[in-house]
Design a protein that fits this description.
Length: about 300
Amino acid sequence: MTPAQDRAGRTTTDKSANNRGDRSNDADATDHGKGDKSADKTSDDRGTAEQRIDFGRTAQDYARHRAGFPPALADRLTSYRIGAAGQKMLDLGTGTGSLARLLAARGATVTGLDPAPSLLAEAARLDREAGVAVTYTVGTAERTGLPDASFDVITAGQCWHWFRAGEAAAEARRLLRPGGRIVIAHFDWLPLPGGVVARTEELIRAHNPAWAMGGGTGLYPRWLTDLRVAGFGGVETFSFDVDVPYSRVDWVGRIRASAGVAASLPPAAVERFSEELTALITHDQLIIPHRVWAVVATR
């Protein structure tokens, strides 16, 4: 999602989160590959021996077609006293600002951080349209350059799988005030058997054999270990499912913006993929099952 749900700035080697025991089908977050296995070799323009992921190339599709985190996530977070008016928050790997904007609309004072200026430009545009104010800064989750103990809450939406987790967790702990909280959240499509998502994932793999982020369940137990190792406590999780309406055009655009397509394939291959996915979908309106999952921990 998006899943996240794609938000990378620097080009990186595509290394699957599956190797950590977790999958994000919507590997659309920041720029840090986190895994153990390099992309498979391919001989045509569908991929390279070291597939390069650059979500900056997808900024317009990402902003136009991707459904952001649902308001129900912010509702759930209020029980943890997250998102309160005046609360100072930092959103890591913010991309086009989906989670940052959601929490700023609740009255929080939010800074969004991402390595991709093109995504931040789209975030600022969407903020203006929504009448929401978020401060954006270019940087990475592992080395933000921001002052110690300067935030009440740190969030990471649809992006933790791209970070060097140990460094990012340590940096988050440094930035949080005592008693501050970190939230890692995902909003993933669900490839239920026989559904349009499962068929879409099959098509991505056909065009990009190096893509290994399909088949996910939207659950990320490894992130709990990341946080405990970094010294966080009070770890809790929650999840809930939602059905998200997409038009055929928006679903094609949303998938085109993902890690396995426009963020890694050359333009001609992206065009072929878009044509085939459009032909595959037989309805103008779709209902796409998603799962929201989050872990909350305390410094």
